[in-house]
Each structure stands twice: as C-alpha cells, then as structure tokens.
Structure prediction request, 729 residues.
Amino acid sequence: MAKLRFEALQTLLNRKYDIPTEKATKISDYYGENVFHDRAMQQYLSKDIYKRLQACMNNGKTLERDLADEVASGMKAWAMSKNVTHYTHWFQPLTGRTAEKHDAFFSPTGGGESFEEFGGSQLVQQEPDASSFPNGGLRNTFEARGYTAWDPSSPAFIIGDTLCIPTVFVAYTGEALDYKAPLLKALFALNEAAVPVAQYFDRNVTRVIATLGWEQEYFLVDDALFRARPDLVMTGRTVFGHSSSRGQQLDDHYFGSIPERASVFMRDFEKESHKLGIPIKTRHNEVAPNQFECAPIFEEANLAVDHNQLLMDMMEKVAHRHGLRVLLHEKPYAGINGSGKHNNWSLSTDTGVNLLSPGNTPKTNIRFLTFFINTIKAVHDHADLLRASIASAGNDHRLGANEAPPAIISVFIGSQLTQVLNDLEKKVKDKGMSPDEKTEVKLNIGRIPEILLDNTDRNRTSPFAFTGNKFEMRAVGSQANCAAPMIVMNSIMANQLKLFKNDVDSLIKKGKKKDEAILTVLRKYVMESRNILFEGNGYGDEWVKEAARRGLSNIKTTPHCLDVYLRKESVKLFTDLDVMSPQELEARTEIYQENYKMKIQIESRVMGDLCMNHIIPAAITYQNKVIETFKNLKEVYAGSDLKRLAAPHDKIIKEISERIAAVQELVHEMIQERKKANVLEEERDAAMWYCEKVIPFMTDIRYQVDKLELVVEDDLWPLPKYREMLFSR
Ligand code: ADP
Ligand code: MG
Prediction:
C-alpha cells in the first residue's frame, strides 16, 4: 500500500487517547482567568484610573498618555502575576486570520542587570514590520510602515507566556489594513444612526450596540490522515476523493451522541476558551460525519468577532494535543455538507432592550416593527453588498451546493410576521386615518406575540432568516472573519436608519403624529422591499428561477461579488458613514481579489503535482500489474476462451490509459491557463481568469482522478480515502 497512507492508517489504529477521569471543575472557577477584564482591572488599577478607562471604553474616546501609562503598568503587574514574559499586539490583517509579533517585557539596563518594561507607549502603539501584509497598494515598499493601535473596547488576554493586546492595524497614512478598524467605525456609525430612532420610543436611550452570536461549524480529522493528504495540508480541502458509499444519507450524525474522542477534544478547547472569557455554550454534531458545531452566548459585535478569531486559533492549537486537525474550510469534502458560520445579529440599547424583540404593548411593538422593517429594507437595498461580504474561494463551493443557502440573498420572516406586514400594508393609509382605523392598526400591532410561535418551523434554507428576536445570516463561510459581514450589515443598517429618521421627521414636520408618521414610512418600506421576502425552499431550483423573475441577483463567484464593493452606490454608502474611504475600498478589494487568485493558484498547483507525482504513478503501477496478468492469460488460454477471460483486463487497461492521458492533457492545459493569468497586471483580471478559465480544468481533472480511484487497486492508492477520513474516530 502507498506508504504515507498506510502509515497514517497504522497510526490511527494505534492511537490512544486519555479520557479524563478527574471530576470536571466548575466553569465559574476558571472562567475569564486569562482576561484583563473588570475584576482584574479593579484589582490592578486604582479606582480613579479604572473609572477613566471605563469611560474611554464606553465612548470610544482615545486614552490620554498618563492614563495609558497607568493602565499598562497595571496590566503588566497582572500579567506577570501569571508568569507572562512577553507581550504582543494582536491584530486581524486582511490575510484572514490573526497576526502577532511578540516582544519580551524584559529590557537590559547594562552591567548584566535588567528590568521588565511595558509602558503606555508599548500598550498603545506598536510598529510591526508590515511590509509583508497585504496592503493593496496603500503603502509603497519604501514607506512600508504600518502601526497597530490598542482597541480598549476588547480586553487584553493571555495565551501561554504572552500578553495579547487587541489592536487595529493601519497604514501610516491612516488607512485601515485590517478588519477591526472599519468594523469599529461601522459600529460607531450604527450607534449614531440608531440612537435617535430608538429615542422615538424611549428618551433614555443613549447607546445602541450591535450584538453578534456566531455558530462555528468544523470538521475533525485524525492528524496522521491529514498529513498524508498534501491537498489538505496545503489548501485545507481535499481536491480529490470519490465519495464513500456511505456519506450522510442516513442522517444519523446530526445531534447524535458525540464520539468520545471528539468530545474529549471539545471539553479541552472549551476550557481554554472559557479561560479566555469566550462564552461557549453549546456543542453538537453537525449533519456530515465528523462534522461538529459550537456556539457561544452572544456578545457585543466587536468582542464577538475577536472571540471567534481567537476560538479558531485556539481550536487548532488544542487539536494538536489530541492528534486531531480542525478543518475550518467551507468545503473540505466534495459531495458532503460544507461548513458555515451563522451570524446571529441584533441591536440592543443601554436601557437593556433588544430592538428586534417584539414586546407586549403596541408601543414596544411599533419599536420592534421599526427595527425589523428597516433591517429588511437595508438588506433589500444592499443585497449585493451583503453577498460580497461573504464571498470567498472556499464559500463559492458551498453556497447553492444543495446544503447551504444559495448565492441569492433573500429574507425569511415566518408566516406570523408576513401576516403582520400584510396588515400594515392594507390598513395603514397614506392620506391619513380615521381614529377608528388608527385604533384598529394599533390593536393589530399590539397582538404581535412576544414569543413568535413561527420559529418552530424555522426555514433552514434561507440565507437571512428572522429567528424570533434576531436575524440569522446563514451564508457566512466557516473560515471567514465575521467582521466582513458585520461591517456591511451594520453599515447598511446605519445608512437605512438615517434615511428612516429623515423620512419620519419630514412627515412629522408636515403635521403627522409621530406614530402615524412611523407607520406610514414603514408601510412604504414594506411595499418597496417585497421582492426580497421569500418563505419557500431556498435550496430548490424553482427558487433560482423565481428569484430571476423577481430580478434578484444571483452572483455565484467571488471575483464577480468583489466588484460590488466598488460600485458607485457602495462607495457612497461607506464614505458617507465614514466607514471606509474610496482608497480603502479599492485597496481592500484588490487584496481580496489577490487572495482569491492565490488560493485558486495554490489549489491548482497542488492538483497538478498530485496528478503527476501521486495519481498517475499509482495508476501506472496498477496498470502494469494488469498488463502482466493479461500477458500471462495469453500463455494459459487461447482462442475464444482467451477473448472472454482477458476482456476485463483489457477494459481496465484501456480505462486507465484513457484516464491517464486525459489527466495529463488537462493538467498541461490548466498550466497554460495559469500562465496566461499570471501575466495579467490587474488583480481583478487575474482573479477572473482563475475563476473562469482555470477552475473548469480543475473540475474536469477531479472527475478523471475520482474515477481512477474506483479502478486502481486499493493497496496502491496513495491518498487516504473519504471513508477513512470521514468515518474513523
Ligand atoms: P440554532 O438553532 O440556529 O443552532 P441556537 O439557539 O443554537 O440556534 O443559536 C442561537 C445563537 O444566536 C447563539 O449563538 C446565540 O448566542 C445567538 N443569539 C441569541 N440572541 C441573540 C441576540 N439578541 N443577538 C445576537 N445573537 C443572539
Ligand atoms: Mg443557526
């Protein structure tokens, strides 16, 4: 048997893992112990400093220098009490994951003496050599400086011997080079726009925050099998692999009992997460074999984004200890469910109200309808932008692939709320209403139940579904940084709420009462947004046709999606809100395009190499064996006997020959297309070329190789097979 695969399976057979026997300790005993949060702050900062810091954290104000020094000193004392020796600014460059550059606290003073140094300036700002991070032409190489700056709204934390300080990453000229900077700006814009609207209903509201509760899906695979798959190692997904005879047909994995080995791993990484203050709450099996999900309690969006990034890193680290690998790719296996990351999103006020939660009075329900309908209108008007925010090479495999929402953005709201919107449309009168009519409308609105029963029949096929007191974005990719969709979601909502405020105020100026003005505007929005509402099966082909009839977009691939960021209306939206400048948008889009191109390029190279070095040699070895037998048969039999008995061998030899020839030709042609792409100057053109000219070859090559897998003797097949990766525990 092919050596690597054989050894991997051997390792797997001999794998032993410990099931912890000691009693689990209470989570509250260690929850947040590695976070510089409230409790630690109060212990290590003076009352006055603590108060000033809190004020900065709540209002997003910049820290004065003396305050920074005091905070740094407290933070250092706390960290050193936990045996920390290094610190790093922790940031989220556009490469997708997180970056850190560690410096020691230690600082020599000459004469063999040293002291531990960490002052305000080290806390507030750092200059990583940023030239190797993607910048989309924002910095020339001779001015390749960027800096990281502390984000006090997300607490510092400890990993191993290092104090990590969440930061934004920007160019010296001020442009954002990361996800966090525009996210913070979007959240700021949202607050500015939402507070005045929330004040229509309650004067005491002074702050509105976006909340995010993500659900993370992932696959586990044994480390030895992972290493025996160069494609997994290099790209995070299998570029070859015939589906195993059993996949997920039996539907027996979802919510089934969690396999022991996976559960030991989960307990371990949850503990690490809890120490970091990530409020992981649920865990369960997902639909596909060896696929799982975990989800925390929701948090303020910026913190939730950081926590998700941290969790992904943590999972990978902890998996090593268990001889496992975490696959975060959107589509590690063809023909099997992919992985997503649902983003549950809502808005809440500093008066403790969830603005997307129906209440029990007409007033609270008009408030609910206001935020609910404005969300629908925002999504209706900027569906393409939302689609662009979740576009990635990996997610292209998943969206619309029969087990994930399609690339068409639509909104599901359930039958009860559909009825409410229908009533609103029918009963509210533009021209003004009689007192009786007003009472009827209010009565109807008052009847929206606090708990929407409809949520039991939640539509799982919708990319954007209302689930009782929040919207759930289901089309986000599993590897994605949630910040990307959160930047767009909060920006379009901020924009929409500003428009709404204008519309309502101008009616009030014309003499309409506030409630009536609000309802009149909402009614207009409902009518304008109708075509984005869809309650049916989002996975079906009929929906694709129906959506086309309605004029909804269905942008299937990433390079096409990315163009949306540079449309005039997108640029206007982000600049008006001061979330991103035109230069930032351009740079960002270029980085995304390059990123896409690189991903496909690597996959295509891995495919070529695997074909030439692994697949074809294995096929030839087997072919030779069969040819040998074929020759021997000739010696033993003659005439019609020979013809009949050697026919299978003949067939196998021919099939292998044909497929080898096809693979070789296709690989050659694919390389030619890559060469053409690689000389294109614009990243966009290159990305398009990869998408339209290279990927089709990859599909054809895969087809041939997966067929070869079915013919070639199992002992000779070099790559671990799907059944081995999906069903071994
Ligand atoms: P599902 O049935 O989709 O798996 P779960 O109940 O497991 O749903 O997950 C719901 C998710 O929604 C959790 O991550 C939870 O934290 C999040 N969530 C609940 N309320 C809110 C809210 N107001 N804002 C944001 N997220 C929320
Ligand atoms: Mg969900």
About this structure: The chain has three domains: 31-178, 187-573, 595-726. The radius of gyration is 29 Å. The first helix runs from residue 3 to 14.
